[in-house]
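TICKET #2291
ISSUE: user wants both folds in one file
ATTACHMENT 1:
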Amino acid sequence: MFKVGVKVMPREVILDTQGRAVEQILKQKKMHVGSCRVGRFVELDIQAETSESALREAKIIADNVLFNPLIETYELSIIK
């Protein structure tokens, strides 16, 4: 069994209203931040023989369920 992390983020060209709201609050509290983007992290437990096959399965899951290709991107990683 492998744990695969899926980081889903809004595309750079998409207005990230949630990220902007967090950014404004941080700046109001005098915290020095240039910008802020908000996404989500999904952790999958995948039964597979190798990490490569786990990543392939996670890619299928991400492509079909976890992200909207019009407005989001994603990255996969094996979690230790």
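ATTACHMENT 2:
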Amino acid sequence: MKKIIWWIIGIVIVVVIVIFATRGGAGDTGPIKIGFIGPLTGDGASFGEPLRNSIDMAVS
């Protein structure tokens, strides 16, 4: 019986967190930010630079 109560409490907490987490961004009308994570230096730069150029071209 105690396990069921703890499960119910846990589910209620998760539902409340999800509800409050999704309500905050409804009124945000600012610009959309685009991020890029890639290798731009070192040994992987030969792969990262063309990818960054492609992303810049797609954004413009």
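RESOLUTION: both attachments delivered.
EXTRA DETAIL ON ATTACHMENT 2: The chain has two helices and no strands.
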